[in-house]
Amino acid sequence: MVVESREWVLSAYVPQGVPTSEHLKLNTVTLKLDSDSIPDRHIAVQLLWLSIDPYLRTRMSGHQDGLYFPQFELNQAVTGFGVARVIRSKNSSYIEGDIILNPFCPVAEYCIIQPSDFLRKVDPDAGVPLPDYLCSLGVPGFSAWVGIEVLGNPKPGENVFISAAAGGVGMFAGQLAKIKGCRVVGSTGSDEKVKLLKEEFGYDDAFNYNTETDFDAALSKYFPTGIDIYLENVGGKMLEAVLNHVNKRARIPVCGMISQYNQVWSEREGVRNLLNMVGKEVRMEGYLVGSYINRFGDFAKEMESYIKQGKISSKHKIYNGIESFLESLASLFSSSNVGKVVIQVKQEMEA
Amino acid sequence: MVVESREWVLSAYVPQGVPTSEHLKLNTVTLKLDSDSIPDRHIAVQLLWLSIDPYLRTRMSGHQDGLYFPQFELNQAVTGFGVARVIRSKNSSYIEGDIILNPFCPVAEYCIIQPSDFLRKVDPDAGVPLPDYLCSLGVPGFSAWVGIEVLGNPKPGENVFISAAAGGVGMFAGQLAKIKGCRVVGSTGSDEKVKLLKEEFGYDDAFNYNTETDFDAALSKYFPTGIDIYLENVGGKMLEAVLNHVNKRARIPVCGMISQYNQVWSEREGVRNLLNMVGKEVRMEGYLVGSYINRFGDFAKEMESYIKQGKISSKHKIYNGIESFLESLASLFSSSNVGKVVIQVKQEMEA
Can you give the residue ranges of the Enoyl reductase (ER) domain (chains A, B) (predicted)? Predict the structure, then answer.
């Protein structure tokens, strides 16, 4: 069996700005998938769903500071979190038809990989729609859970602020904080998403940072008694504004800083009021969900229970076909999406 | 009994720069200290020693952001941490001759106060020289202990960086980290102090930030394997440089940010690379020692034991007479001091 497989290759690093077709090329390669062509212990997989996340951008800058995820290699297919189907196996742990979750899946319609510890097999009897593994029960849901429940340590009645609140992490973070009895306010990029946060995700309030551009005034208005937990997804000016409204012993779990990803660091606007962290004894802590993987079972059990009880809503923005990778990635930086961005690489009916 | 008492009064707030005689006036007041003039439950005290600390500056800015200590009131005597002798008492818990520690002592040669929970009586049999209560066994020693031992959680072999390393907090912080088996490097403002850190306080290495002004290059040189704990005393550019050299799960206890105190916050240079906190999962936490007062007993026991074993050295810079308040305060911002700055308000022999 021979397939034509399209894959996205990084041809040049992107020091600043949004990646374009100058940096990412859609190539077509021919793959032989007969038994002789697949090495021992390897499997051939077909990509079904791909998660599109802001951190992908941070692997394309080419900055050699080494302080974030390692940079993608040039002239190789980039990777992302994917759901794939095994179509050939020369590994005794996998059979044809298995559905796998792969955090470092090449962004390619087909590929041959050697299974690693990172792979997880989906239980076909769980009845979970596949995109949910990239969403409520995947990295965004887990990121929200670690930020709010592990690092945020929310107490009933506390005031919680979520930035990028209608994004993949934000939508779950707000709902988890509400379940814990907190008052929750979010910032997001459109009036439509403000409405969604309040009506669909149960936020107590929300504002559009593109129209309420004086963040300090907005936070005075929405947090008259201050902020106890800020789940940081954007950085820059929003963080600076938050630090003028923190309560004693506020917690700031730092999930990401999307406002910073398209700039070289020396040109970023700095945060000038970190001194407020002393007077208010604020704890700010960066995290990567991979470090909390020993808690994934606790998370999955809790989240599944909330989903069954109808306590968690979820929105996906679905792009179709692997050719939409560049467009879907750029969309993360334009306030245009609602919910978690995913690509349906292959229609499930045909898969 | 009537005394002439000189006291320092704040006549104008200091929005930026170092306080001068335009802002702080040395007034002389006449105090009646006979029994009829002292209210019930009050005591009259004579100030012996006064601690001069960077945080005092933050109480003089007049900024109403309310995020640090409350601002001093205009046309009132400012306050600081003092050692004083009771000279008259109408409070049954105090007798003439008692030596007290007062964290909010008016900067005045004499005053009449109502004792509060903040006061602590010195045990005259402890044999501790009085300035040590403002130093190794006082707020600077306790600040160092909370930063290094409580928040820093040092492990043998870890790399520890201390800024303002020859200052009141820094000199103890480095010694405590050495006792815990860490490798310790400090930054300080003169070659003389670099020498002192290495020869007197046991630092493994140290550099002069006034001559090695490329902090990023300096940290590359002194921390080839990265920084695990940074005790933050200065903020601004130094913090930014540190964030380019942090190791995975580094801890940054924030004791203060002296580089920021003389500027209005909107004119401060911001920190542009907080994103590094995500990739390295850094925890940065501001603290005020008052919040750890329940650990003061543990601290005092441990520190006294180290002092008896000769494991802790200490330097004071002593100014003489209450008239030196303005000069001694300004000296904190000029790299000119070694060790903890105190004023000997009254010679002990005469007291």
Answer: 62-343
